[in-house]
Amino acid sequence: MDNTVGSRATYNPTKLSNRQTAIVVGSLLGDGCLEKRESGVRLRLDHSSKQKSYLLWKHKELQNIAGKILKVSYYHKVHKKSYENYRFSTFSNELLALFWRKFYPHGKKVIPSDIEILLRDPLALAIWFMDDGYKRNDCNALRLSTDSFTLDEHALLRKVLKKNFGIDTRVHKKGKYWNLYIPEKCAKAFVALVQPFIHKTLDYKIALTL
């Protein structure tokens, strides 16, 4: 059942600032998805109740194109437990239609061939990590849960992270999926890049130990 916890924002159909564009790019690399409808393409952002504050922050940042925030309750049959998520979708936007052609050329999310141009802002990197990144419990290495991407796409992301941010990464196998791995020797440099943009409720993701 959906419950509204936000309000409709003033609609600006075309304009996104550089900061908003970085948030969109980071979200598309992370948990965000684009939805194509008759009226155009919209972005949907969905986070667990534990990350509600983070979602509210995204909603505020994208307020000129953001729709209402909804609380979504569902029952997980395997875990036999009820969960609550919070989500919102944006209004259709010309830039999002462009990103659909780049990220969803055949209807499934891929890494665009020009990701080197799209992923230049440390804010986008921080959003991506807040969505899908975490610190290992046994060391200071960091990992990005990039399960849905191919090995070739991982190679492209590694190249971009090195060229645009000077961050060396590896590709690790996790079960049947590939993940991007940031070794301890590079973790401090990565954290220095993203820390200014990390939401206060997600500081634990970059809490390196001595």
Give a concise summary.
This protein has about 210 residues and is an alpha+beta fold. The chain has helices at about 20-30, 50-60, 95-105, 115-120, 120-130, 150-165, 185-195, and strands at about 1-5, 35, 40-50, 70-75, 80-90, 135, 140-145, 170-175, 175-180.
Mean pLDDT: 91
| Overall radius of gyration | 17 Å
Which secondary-structure class do the elements indicate?
Answer: alpha+beta
How many H/I helices?
7
- How much helix is in the residues? 25-40%
> What is the name of the CATH architecture of the largest domain?
Roll
Q: What number of structural domains do the residues give? A: 2
Count of DSSP strands: 9
Q: Sketch the topology as an H/E string, one letter per element.
A: EHEEHEEHHHEEHEEH
Strand order of the largest sheet: 1-4-5-3-2
Largest sheet: 5 strands, antiparallel
> How does the overall form come out from the CA principal axes?
globular
Low-confidence runs of at least 5 consecutive residues: 1-12
How much of the sequence lies in strands comes to: 15-25%
Q: In the CATH hierarchy, what is the class of the largest domain? A: Alpha Beta
CATH superfamily of the largest domain: Homing endonucleases
Compute the separation of the termini in Å. 45 Å
CATH topology of the largest domain: Endonuclease I-creI
